[in-house]
Design goal:
Layout: H1 2-10, H2 13-61, H3 68-78, E1 82-87, E2 94-103, E3 113-122, E4 144-151
Antiparallel strand pairs: 1-2, 2-3, 3-4
Helix pairs in contact: 2-3
């Protein structure tokens, strides 16, 4: 009889454990979705920076009458980013840009975080000294050089 009374006291305890496991699993799924979204946006920011740097470099070596920074801003916007800075002196052969993309639509973490990406495009023109690193990696095959991502917010 004592054994049957003990069983009735523990009935339903497995339901509490199962509910706890399900809550933990749901939180892990939401966190994983947020990380995947942040990584996707970080990749998009780097692609926008690369496109903006290449567009600015193209405008610098084959001018169409537009400001290279405006061209870079337009390409950044087409790729879902905002141009933060553009170091693209007219007559030069190098463009360095930074773009920012806001991370929105997160499920678990608060929105409003940003990702900043930087890119550098160097054009190696015949007869013009290139401003590439000393390792000599400045041929046409290395026209665009990505300089990584920086988190504007804490991910």
């Amino acid at each position: 009889m004592v054994h049957a009374a003990r069983r009735r006291d523990q009935s339903g305890s497995i339901t509490i454990v199962a509910a706890g496991v399900m809550v933990m699993l749901a939180v892990m799924v939401l966190a994983t979705a947020d990380v995947a979204r942040a990584l996707s946006i970080s990749s998009r920011a780097q692609a926008a920076a690369d496109a903006a740097a290449l567009a600015a470099a193209q405008e610098m070596i084959e001018p169409t009458g537009q400001d290279p920074a405006q061209v870079a801003a337009r390409f950044a916007e087409r790729n879902g980013a905002t141009l933060v800075s553009c170091d693209c002196a007219e007559g030069g052969s190098e463009a360095t840009v930074a773009v920012r993309v806001e991370i929105s639509g997160l499920l678990l973490l608060p929105s409003g975080r940003t990702v900043t990406a930087r890119a550098r495009a160097v054009v190696d023109l015949p007869g013009v000294p290139a401003s590439c690193p000393a390792d000599g990696a400045g041929g046409p095959e290395n026209m665009s050089e990505s300089r990584g991502r920086e988190g504007g917010g804490d991910l």
